[in-house]
Amino acid sequence: MFKLVFFVPDSHLEAVKDAVFAAGAGRIGDYSRCCWQTAGEGQFCPLPGSQPFIGQQGSLERVAEYRVEMVCDDVHITAVVSALKQAHPYEEPAFDVWRLAAPEDYVLRL
User: Which parts form a coiled-coil structure per UniProt (predicted)?
Assistant: First the structure.
C-alpha cells in the first residue's frame, strides 16, 4: 500500500483527482474516491528552458494550491502516477509516493 500526496492549483483540483481515482487510487475497504485535501500556497521560480503553466521564467511565483493525500494499492500505483502526470497542468507536478507499513506491523502494547 502507498500514500500519494500531490499539489495542484484549484483550477485543476477536480480533474486531477478524477484522473487518479479512475486509475485506482483512493480506495479504502468498501469506499472509493477517499482523500484528504487542504488549501495552501505553493511557490516556485521557473528556470530557463521551462515552460511554466503559471508565471514567467526567472520570476518567483506564489499560487493558491491544494495538497491532496490518498492511499493506493501496489497494483495501481504506476498507473496512478501516470494519470497524475497526464492530468496535471504543471510541466513538473510536485508529488510524493510513500510506502506504508501494513497494519499487522503495529502491535498495541499496554
Answer: none
Which of 86, 110, 95, 101 lies closest to 42 in space, CA to CA?
95
State the cell numbers at 79: 498507473
Rounded Cα distance between 98 and 71, Å, is: 9
CA–CA distances in Å: residue 20 to residues 15, 35, 40, 74:
9, 11, 21, 14
**Alpha helices, DSSP H only, in the chain?**
13-22, 77-87
CA atoms of 63 and 43, how far apart (whole Å)? 6
pLDDT tens per residue, the chain (110 residues)? 999 999 999 999 999 999 999 999 999 999 999 999 999 999 999 999 999 999 999 999 999 999 999 999 999 999 999 999 999 999 999 999 999 987 666 666 55
In the chain, what are the domain boundaries? 2-101
On whether the CB atoms of residues 9 and 67 are closer than 8 A, the answer is no
Query: What whole-number distance in Å separates Cα of residue 77 and Cα of residue 66?
Result: 21
